[in-house]
C-alpha cells in the first residue's frame, strides 16, 4: 500500500468570485495561524499526526507523493514549502523518485522561486491557468495574465520541473471559441499534463450571488458538455490522453498523487480542512478511517498549540461505503473498475445494458467509461450501484 501526504496552505491574496474552497485572506485571520508562522504550525501538526499513527499501530511506508494545495501554497516563501517537505522526509521518509508537487498562482512565482523549489526537492508545479481569454479571467476574478502562465511554465522547464495547468470551463460569457482558444493555448505551452474542470457555482460565493440576482447567466449543462468534448478532442490530438474524467496527460506523466486518491491509498492531510484516510487504522482495519481537520486557521492553530491533533471529526468507513467509493472512483478512471476485486460478482445483465447504451466498455475484468459515459458519469455510477445491489 502506498502512502501520500497532502499539505493544505489556506491563504490567498484575494478570494476569487467562484471559489468555495477553504481559503482565507489576511483580513480573515487573527491568532492561531498566519502566513508568517504557517510552516512552523504545519510541521507541529505533522509531529502530532506521526505520534497518533505510532500510538494506533499505523505503520506507513515512505511517502510516494507529497502535494501542496490551497489556497495558494506559493503565497508563502519557497523556503517555507521546502521546510515542510523536509519535515515530511524527517518524519515519514520520502521514497526515491517520489512525486513532489505544489500548486501555484502564476502571479506568485518567478524563476528564482521555482529554482528554490527545484533545489529543495520539488519535481512538479501545477499552475492555475483557468483560461487564456482575458474577459473570462476577469469573470473568474483571476488577476494573472496568459503571459504569467507561460513565464511560469518556462521557468519550470528551465529548472527541470514538470508542469501541469488547470483550466475551468463554463464561466458566464465564455463562448465555445473562447474555450477552444484556452485549450489550444494550454497545449501550446508544451506541458505534459492538463486538468479541465466544469465550473461549479456555489450559492454562497460572490459569483453564485450574482447569478442568483440575474447579473450573470447560469452555466448551461449542454454548453459544458460541448466544451468537454472539445477539450477531449484537442488534448487527444496533441498526444495527451484522458486518464481520469477531468485529467489528461502524456503516458507516464499522470499525477501520481491524484491517482492515489482515486485508488484509495492511505494519506495524511495536514492543514486546516485537510482530510486524511487510513485503510488500516484502529480496531476495525478493514473498515478504514477518514478524518478531517478543523477548517479555520485560527482554531486549527490553537488546537495544535494545545498539543492536540486538530481533527474536527472522524468516521469509520463501513463495508458498503467502501464498496460505493471503489465503484465511484473506479468508474472515473481510464483503467476502469476492477470487477474481480469486488466482494461479489455484479449482475452481468445490468453491465451488458450499460455496454449496449454506449456508457461503458469492457477490457477483461475491468469496466471503464466511454466518452458518453464520462459525460453521464453520475448516471453510470448510480446504475452500477443498483447492479451491485447497493
Automatic annotation (TrEMBL):
Keyword Transmembrane: no
Keyword terms, alphabetized: 4Fe-4S, Chaperone, Cytoplasm, Heme, Iron, Iron-sulfur, Metal-binding, S-adenosyl-L-methionine
InterPro entries reported for this sequence: Coproporphyrinogen-III_oxidase, Elp3/MiaA/NifB-like_rSAM, HemN_C, HemW-like, rSAM
Protein family (similarity comment): Belongs to the anaerobic coproporphyrinogen-III oxidase family. HemW subfamily.
Record domain Radical SAM core: where: 1-241
Function (record text): Probably acts as a heme chaperone, transferring heme to an unknown acceptor. Binds one molecule of heme per monomer, possibly covalently. Binds 1 [4Fe-4S] cluster. The cluster is coordinated with 3 cysteines and an exchangeable S-adenosyl-L-methionine.
UniProt-listed Pfam families: HemN_C (PF06969), Radical_SAM (PF04055)
UniProt entry tagged with the keyword Heme: yes
Major site of localization recorded for this protein: cytoplasm
NCBIfam families linked: hemN_rel (TIGR00539)
Location(s) in or outside the cell: Cytoplasm
Protein name: Heme chaperone HemW
Amino acid at each position: 500500500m502506498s502512502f501520500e501526504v497532502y499539505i493544505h496552505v489556506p491563504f490567498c491574496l484575494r478570494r476569487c468570485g467562484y471559489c468555495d474552497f477553504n481559503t482565507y485572506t489576511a483580513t480573515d485571520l487573527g491568532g492561531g495561524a498566519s502566513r508568517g508562522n504557517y510552516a512552523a504550525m504545519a510541521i507541529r501538526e505533522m509531529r502530532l499526526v506521526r505520534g497518533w499513527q505510532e500510538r494506533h499501530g499505523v505503520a506507513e511506508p515512505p511517502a510516494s507523493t507529497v502535494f501542496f494545495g490551497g489556497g495558494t501554497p506559493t503565497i508563502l516563501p519557497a523556503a517555507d514549502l521546502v521546510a515542510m517537505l523536509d519535515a515530511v522526509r524527517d518524519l515519514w521518509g520520502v521514497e526515491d523518485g517520489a512525486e513532489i508537487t505544489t500548486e501555484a498562482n502564476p502571479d506568485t512565482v518567478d524563476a528564482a522561486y521555482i529554482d528554490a523549489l527545484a533545489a529543495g526537492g520539488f519535481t512538479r508545479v501545477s499552475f492555475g491557468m483557468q483560461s487564456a481569454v482575458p474577459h473570462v479571467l476577469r469573470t473568474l476574478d483571476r488577476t494573472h495574465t496568459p503571459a504569467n502562465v507561460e513565464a511560469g511554465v518556462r521557468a519550470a522547464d528551465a529548472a527541470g520541473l514538470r508542469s501541469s495547468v488547470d483550466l475551468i470551463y463554463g464561466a458566464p460569457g465564455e463562448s465555445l471559441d473562447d474555450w477552444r482558444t484556452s485549450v489550444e493555448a494550454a497545449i501550446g505551452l508544451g506541458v505534459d499534463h492538463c486538468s479541465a474542470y466544469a465550473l461549479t457555482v456555489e450559492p454562497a460565493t460572490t459569483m453564485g450571488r450574482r447569478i442568483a440576482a440575474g447579473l450573470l447567466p447560469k452555466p448551461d449543462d449542454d454548453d459544458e458538455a460541448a466544451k468537454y468534448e472539445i477539450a477531449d478532442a484537442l488534448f487527444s490530438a496533441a498526444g495527451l490522453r484522458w486518464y481520469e474524467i477531468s485529467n489528461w496527460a502524456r503516458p507516464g506523466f499522470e499525477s501520481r498523487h491524484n491517482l492515489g486518491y482515486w485508488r484509495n491509498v492511505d494519506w495524511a492531510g495536514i492543514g486546516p480542512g485537510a482530510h486524511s484516510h487510513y485503510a488500516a487504522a484502529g480496531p476495525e482495519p478493514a473498515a478504514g478511517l477518514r478524518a478531517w481537520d478543523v477548517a479555520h486557521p485560527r482554531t486549527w492553530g490553537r488546537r495544535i498549540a494545545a498539543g492536540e491533533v486538530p481533527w474536527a471529526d472522524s468516521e469509520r468507513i463501513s463495508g458498503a461505503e467502501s464498496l460505493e467509493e471503489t465503484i465511484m472512483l473506479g468508474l472515473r478512471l481510464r483503467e476502469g473498475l476492477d470487477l474481480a476485486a469486488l466482494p461479489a460478482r455484479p449482475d452481468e445483465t445490468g453491465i451488458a445494458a450499460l455496454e449496449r447504451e454506449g456508457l461503458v466498455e469492457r477490457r477483461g475484468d475491468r469496466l471503464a467509461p466511454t466518452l458518453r459515459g464520462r459525460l453521464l458519469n453520475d448516471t453510470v455510477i448510480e446504475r452500477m450501484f443498483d447492479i451491485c445491489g447497493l
